[in-house]
Amino acid sequence: MPDRTLLRVEHLRKVYESTTGGVEAIGDVSFTMAAGELVCVVGPSGCGKTTLLKCLAGLLRPTGGVVEMDGAPVTGPSPAMAVVFQEYGRSLYPWLTVRGNVELPLRHKKLSRAQRRRLVDDALDAVGLAHAAPSHPWQLSGGMQQRVAIARAVAYQPEVLIMDEPFAAVDAQTRADLEDLVRELHASRRMSIVFVTHDIDESVYLGQRVIVLSSSPTRVQEDLAIDLPPERDQIGTRALPRFTHLRTHVYGEIQRARRGRAIAPRPAP
Ligand code: ADP
Ligand code: MG
């Protein structure tokens, strides 16, 4: 059932209240996502991407509108979702081994020790870190630490994997490898993934769809199908004229949104 609607966001609005007045981080955002999709959300820094993600994951209560997961409203932290944040350094427990970190959220699930062990082994294998199970996070590079965070999310078997600028803090080569890991997890495990980034090229390289956000108060500036071949590679795909065309189009949309005019999207590229 490739078209089952998994996530539905309707007229989402979020205002942060403070003593000096409110900040309208999200104005009016609506979109749906089908099970098994890899959707990138791209927008300039400060446009409300993290706020949107936290509302999706039930970590923040929206001011208005609804988020629905499999037809049911999300009202609190949802066991159906796993989130990978940018700051891998703060998301792993330094006193636990890699295995311990990946296993920790599974303790909330009704699983036998053998089942837990199997899920952890499988997830570490999927991210290429089977050999690092007994290490501690601080013994690993930044890129490897982020792989541990991804393994933890994979082992948890969420309905949706939500990633918030997960590779913004690693070097370019590591970043490319991690992007390919995300594509691979999506292709081989049919994982549903929402990937948030401020990097336009990254969004086009990774996504089957790119949702372009305007600056705050955020709206969906464009919802673009990425018609690049599903088999992608860092050199070949990025050299395709179609890739250049799409990333230039997205860049233009973000510029237009920032200027705050001509909000109706241009025809699809
Ligand atoms: P992004 O992730 O796209 O960089 P954020 O969602 O972090 O954007 O922030 C969107 C807007 O909301 C920004 O103007 C930011 O300053 C504001 N904001 C974010 N978190 C809070 C908060 N806890 N309280 C008040 N304002 C916030
Ligand atoms: Mg953010």
UniProtKB/TrEMBL annotation:
Pfam hit, one: ABC_tran
Q: Keywords on this record?
A: ATP-binding, Nucleotide-binding, Transport
Top-level taxon: Bacteria
Q: Does the keyword Ribonucleoprotein apply?
A: no
The residues covered by the ABC transporter domain are 7-240
| Keyword Zinc annotated | no
What InterPro entries does the record point to?
Answer: AAA+_ATPase, ABC_transporter-like_ATP-bd, ABC_transporter-like_CS, ABC_transporter_ATP-bind, P-loop_NTPase
GO MF term set: ATP binding; ATP hydrolysis activity
Q: This chain belongs to which protein, by name? A: NitT/TauT family transport system ATP-binding protein
The root-end lineage is: Bacteria, Bacillati, Actinomycetota, Actinomycetes, Micromonosporales
